[in-house]
Amino acid sequence: MTSSSTLALLGGKPVRTRLFPAYSVIGEEEKAAAARVLDSGILSRFLGAWHPDFFGGPEVQAFEQQWAALSQVKHAISVNSCTSGLYAAIGAAGVQIGDEVIVSPYTMAASATAAPVFNGVPVFADIDPDTYCISAETIRARITERTRAIVVVHIFGQCADMDPIMELAREHRLVVIEDCAQAPFATYKGRPAGSLGHMGVFSLNYHKHIHTGEGGMVTTNDDRFAERLQLIRNHAEAVVEKKGVSDLSNMIGFNFRLGEIEAAIGREQLNKGPGLIEQRKENVRYLENRLSGLPGLRMPVVGAAQDHVYYIHVMDYDAQVTGVTREKLVQAIKAELPATELREGEGPLLNMGYVRPLYMLPLFRQAAATMGHASPMARAVAAGQVSYQDGLCPNAERAHYTRVITHELMRPGMQQQDLDDVVAAFHKVWENLDQLRA
Fold it and tell me: Which of 73, 77, 74, 113 has its CA nearest to residue 95?
């Protein structure tokens, strides 16, 4: 056996040692935008009072208008993070003490922790094993008379099957919040993510499709939701009286405001967005054409009316087909590949699973949130109304612990030679599975 055919994990020569190129989408346009704001002397124009500046400065308002037009919605409300946007959306939806909010267990924690901020109770619905999103079927099984809202997470870059979910929401008079953090520019039956539910929440964190360092946006076609989002974003309690707001539920405001520099950068990023998305799609198509057919490895399932924008590339692995555990297989692939520039300490950007199902976090296992053991969440658990135990969402657990393989080696900046090295690493491992079995 030669060193070139010996897996790097077992002492052979790796496919590649040179670092993969960084994911960098900030250029001269963003630098000029930031300089424009600095030259203006206005870094923020928000005022926490009922005043023309309650809505922010010129860059913030222009950014919101540009986002609304692109998302085909009436309103876009900027915030300083997607987490802030989720909190504001839950508050705008009117979630009160003990109200249940149905959400996916297979997502970033903020999708679920937004409910306890307003003393709501997260209820986890299982995911679809093909799309990894929650579905009308799994949501229906969790609806009770206490259900107030649904947070539908468009995970990994593909929208959930929204029409049946919205029909279910109308039937039960529920508010639907789309978590679009990983799916900007994605479409469902020709309609943009963020326009499908009652509110849509986007992320502008540095590792998203487009970014401003930190930031977010909330979209809606509902005037009342838009007003409540703006109030929660910017010190509602100091504004409602002069603004003439009569419904004071959840009108404790925060400071979720976006700065002018971030907004100016965001406007340039929005212009680049469609091109960056197309690069992701092209890279995924290239990889999938060369990886399809490897025994036990299934490429992402994309719905017929869907448009996947690939925040990360997620593959389903069946160890029974290869006779090699997922852990050993991923170790072998990673040994053949290098890290990525600017993220050297993370090793190759390829991993098992995504996040542990959220109900396994101590917050939920101990059911002690903002009010400790007197919290509505703790009371709901004690009363047997909700559960956060193992086995709650078997599809999510199976995906995370045995089947899902994720990687980021398809982002803009990856050229054909880079992709070829990724493909070569996969093929080398599959051609030498017997070494891993032994």
Answer: 113
Q: How many residues does the chain have?
A: 438
| The two three-digit tokens of residue 388, written as one number | 């956060």
Per residue in 267-324, pLDDT (tens digit) is 999 999 999 999 999 999 999 999 999 999 999 999 888 999 999 999 999 999 999 9
Residues 6+ apart with CB under 8 A from 126: 105, 134, 138, 392, 393, 394, 395, 396
Taking only the tens place, the pLDDT of each residue in 313-343 is 999 999 999 999 999 999 999 999 999 999 9
User: What is the enclosing helix (H) or strand (E) of 77?
Assistant: strand 75-79
- Alpha-carbon Rg of the chain, whole angstroms? 23
Q: Strands, E, within 80-198: which ranges?
A: 100-103, 121-124, 147-153, 175-179, 187-188, 191-192
The domain 28-268: what is its CATH number? Answer: 3.40.640.10
Boundaries of every domain in the chain: 28-268
Residue 20 bridge partners (DSSP):
340
How many Å apart are CA 63 and CA 241, to the nearest integer?
Answer: 28
Contact 170, 187 (CB under 8 A): no
Alpha helices in 109-205 (DSSP H): 110-117, 136-140, 162-172
Contact yes or no for 70/194 (Cβ under 8 A): no
Q: How far apart are CA 358 and CA 346, in angstroms?
A: 23
Average pLDDT, the chain: 96
